[in-house]
Each structure stands twice: as structure tokens, then as C-alpha cells.
Amino acid sequence: MKHRASLLGGIAAIIATFVVFVIPFLFIILMAFKDRQQSALRDFSWPAGFHLWDNVVEVGQTRNWMMITAFINSSIITVASVTLLVVFAAMVGFVLARRRTRWNPLIEFLILAGLMVPPAVVPTIWVLQGLKLFGTIHGMILIEVAYNLPFSIILYRAFIATIPRDMDEAAVIDGARPLDVFFRVILPMLWPVTVTNIVVQSVGIFNDFTNPLYYLPGNANATVQLTLFNFQSQFSTAYNLLFTNILLITIPPLIVFLFFNRQIVAGMTAGAVKG
């Protein structure tokens, strides 16, 4: 009876996954292969002709190759933000896990508040304008780091707590300074959770829509998600180009997840298993 219930549960999970994830992706691919007239029907009909390459070229050439500019901007923001997140979150997580003071509860509360409290857009814009960072790539990088830092800190703190303190003490006895203990002893041991953090944060930042919309105006600063506006207007939408655009900006995160799926699961569960 239990085996049958487990089998039915597995089948239901597969069907739900297919409906939620696979069918929408197949619909995107079909729409990307159609011309503008057929794509306006928005159905699952087979393409009358294969126009994918023509659609890709038109998407790339729209607004003076905005898609290329957007990919460059998104890549710069993603790489810089994730690099800073890994370094800062690992250092903060190390300090919180190793140094217990009376301030730790307050710091941990603020970190959790950073996860739960929604960001205030208008005050943030005011601060960025005062610092001359509004509408700049490096200002956007700082925003991404600030918004995603709490999750990364919690991830690293939980993992570092499972590393025996004997490793730190042995390094100190050998003459290592605090920075040497962190960078030469602790940081290399954080590779599983670092891979997880890199993949999760990279996909999230690369696919971020709202933050660039608020804090990074201008065509020269466009990111990949904002290029979706290129093919929508108040009265008409080029669905073939819109879904081709969606397909192009979906491929990089999809490839990352396909190649690093096992590392993501290992990094997320390593701390819990050891704890």
C-alpha cells in the first residue's frame, strides 16, 4: 500500500513538473519559431515555417543592438555582484560563527530583517542620487549586493558552524594571522556552499527585472530583462520577437542549472547534514 502511494505521488509530481515547467518552455520555443502573423494566435499550433533565425537577427538588431548591450551589462553586474557577495558574506559568516558576543543576536536579527523587510525604493533612489550612483552600473552592483547579502550570510554562517574550531586553532598555533586563517584555511573549505551561492545568486541577479527598472534607467544601461519592453506597446505586441527574446535570455540560466544542479543540492544540504 505504501509502495503504491509512493508511486502515485511520484507520478503526480512528474505530471505537475511537466505542466508547470516543461509545457511553458515548449510554448516559448514554438512561438519563437513562428512569424508575427501566426504568433499572434498564441496557440500550440505547429509553425508554418521555421523563422527562428530571422527572429533572432531582428531581436539582436532592435534599437541599435540593444540585446548585445544588455547581455554585456547583465554579465558585468552579475559577475561583480556575485564576487562581492561571496567575499563579504563568507567573511561576515565566519565572524558570526566564530566570535560570540552580546551583539550577535542584534546582528542576526538585522540580517533576518534584511530578508523579510521589503526594500524602500524611493529612499534608496534618494540615497543613490546623493552619492551620484543613480543610473550607473556600479550603483546597480551595490544594490544587488545589499539586497542579496542577508541570504548569502545565512548560507555561509550555517556551513562555517559545521567546521571544527580545531582547524582555526591549529592554523593560529602555526603562526597564521586572522586573515590567513580565513583565506588560506576556511575559505577553501567553503567550496560546496560557495558554488551553491554563486549559481543561485547569478541566476537571480541575471534575471532581476525590478531593480534595474527602478535604479538603472536609460537604453545604454539596459539589462536583459528590460529588453522585453522592446516588442510590447500599448496597442500591439510582436509575440514572435517577444518569445524569441525570452528564449535567448532563458538559455544562460538554464545551462547553469543543468551543469551545476548536483553542486547546488550538495551545497544547500551539506550544512544541514553535518549539523
UniProtKB/TrEMBL annotation:
It is found in: Cell membrane. Keywords: Cell membrane, Membrane, Transmembrane, Transmembrane helix, Transport. SUPFAM superfamilies: MetI-like. The keyword Transmembrane applies. Coiled coil: none annotated. Gene3D superfamilies: MetI-like. It is a multi-pass membrane protein. Residues 71-260 form the ABC transmembrane type-1 domain. It comes from the Bacteria. InterPro entries: MetI-like (IPR000515), MetI-like_sf (IPR035906). The chain crosses the membrane at residues 7-33, 71-97, 109-128, 140-160, 181-206, 238-260. Belongs to the binding-protein-dependent transport system permease family. This is Carbohydrate ABC transporter permease.
